[in-house]
Amino acid sequence: MWIHTVDLPLSEIRQISPLRDTWFEARPQAAVRPKQHTLRAVDRALNALRRDVINMGWLAIDQIDWVVGALLDGQLQLSEDAQARAITLREFDRRIDQEIFKFIALHQPLATDLRLVRSLLRIRADFGDLGVEVETIAGFAPRFAVAGAQSSPLAIIRQLKRMAELSAELLQNSVQALHDSERDLARKVVEQKDEVRSQFESAARVLLTFSFEGEGQRRATVDTLFALNSLERIANYSLHVGSEIVEVLSPIRR
User: Fold this and answer.
1) What share of the chain is helix, strand, coil (3-state, %, to 5)?
2) Per-residue pLDDT tens for 133-185?
3) Which CATH number does the domain housing residue 82 bear?
4) Considering the domain boundaries, does residue 232 fall inside one?
5) Domain assignment present for 91
6) What is the reported pTM?
7) Is the Cα dihedral 8, 13, 17, 18 positive or negative?
C-alpha cells in the first residue's frame, strides 16, 4: 500500500502541524546576538526556510506514490499527475534558493546559523535531485505499464515493488524526521544503507537470471532495471537527507 498524502493547495501543503523548535537546540542561544528580537527574527526566517524544504519533501512523497502506482498498477493518469507536480517541486527549489540568498543578505547570519542554512541547502538539493528521478520513472512508466508489466515474470514485479516500498519508506521517514526534528528517526534512516544496497543487488541478480531466458524477457528485465536504478537513487537521496539531519541536530563540538 503506497503512502497517500492529502492534496492541498501550494500555500497549505503539510503546514497544519507546528514545527518543533528542537531544530535550534544544536545552536548556542545565549549571548550570540546583541538583541533578543534579532535572534527571534532569524529563527522565524530559518523556520520559514525549513518549512519550504519540508514541503518539497511532502511533494516528492506524493510524486513517488503516484509514479509507483503508474508503474506497477498501470494507472497512467498518476504518471501524468507526477509529471505535472514536478513543476511545483521545481518552483519550490527556485524559491528556496532565492530565500536563502535573501536570508544571508538581510540577517548576516553567524556561523551557527549558516550551519543550519547549509543543511537546508543540501537537503533541498537532495529533494530536487530526487524529483528528477521521479520524473524519469514517470516518463518511463507508460511504456512499462503497456509492455513490461504484461511480459515480466512475477519475481521481477515483486523485486520492483520491494524496492519501491523501501524507497518510499525512507523518504517518508526522512521528511518526518526533518519536520519533527527527530534525530533518532533520521539515524534509523541512515542505518538502512546496507538494506538499500542489499535489496538492489538482490533485484539485479533476479533480473540477470531472467535476462537469459529469451528476447522477450530480456527486454522486460532491461526496462525494469532502469526503474530499479532510479528507485535506488531515490533511496540514496533519502539516506543523504537522514545523514544531514543527524549532523545538524547533533550538539556543536567546541
Assistant:
1) 80, 0, 20
2) 888 887 777 666 655 555 556 677 788 888 888 999 999 999 999 998 899 99
3) 1.20.58.220
4) yes
5) yes
6) 0.80
7) negative
